[in-house]
Amino acid sequence: MAVCSKTDLPLAWTVETAKDNETRSVAPLLDRLHALGIDPETCAMDKGYDTAPAYDACAERGVLPVIPLRQTPAVKRGDDKPPVCEHGEWRFAGADRKRNACKWRCPTGECKPASAWIKADRLHPLIPRETLRWKGIYRRRASVERAFGRLKNEWALAPLRVRRIERVQLHADLTILAQLSSARVRSDDALLAA
Ligand SMILES: [Zn+2]
Predict the structure, then answer these.
(1) CA atoms of 99 and 120, how far apart (whole Å)
(2) Ligand 1 centroid to 110 CA: how many Å?
(3) Were both Cys, which of 26, 123, 149, 166 would link to 80 (CB 3.0–4.6 Å)?
(4) How far is the CA of 104 from the centre of ligand 1 (A)?
(5) pLDDT tens-digit readout, 99-123
(6) What is the pTM of this model?
(7) What residues make up the domain containing 119?
(8) Domain-embedded: residue 73
(9) Residues 60, 154: one domain?
């Protein structure tokens, strides 16, 4: 599910079997959002999405990924860390979306050159994991957990009473549409009352 972190409401969803790799769902979900006129600036996902298809899906659609790193060999080597010089660890000094790179600067500015551009990739995203912005956005990923919890506990998404993917898909669609309709009625009521 793609969930809005302001309302905790589902915006787009797919139903797959447990053996399907969920990181393949990122591109179709972002495309569905775009078709609805929703172009998120950032997308927070858990560690399970720390794979090339998720980063590629975001990069191709101008969405900034906020995903924690899995302990891959490159991460164990520390390839994700900021540059270091004799003056200490370099500081993040801004991102440039057009260049698709982040600027890092020597902490004292004594190095020549005192800054360098690092191309964005999985290890060095445009919103660096060292920044407060990254931490703040990642914290809002809790929205998707709340949304699943609410659908399962309050809207009877689970336990499933049907078998076969088509029927489960229909059950999920109806459940989510019921929740969204109810939210819509409440927001209309709130507007009328205001
Ligand atoms: Zn230096």
Answers:
(1) 9
(2) 5
(3) 123
(4) 11
(5) 999 999 999 999 999 999 999 999 9
(6) 0.91
(7) 79-128
(8) no
(9) yes
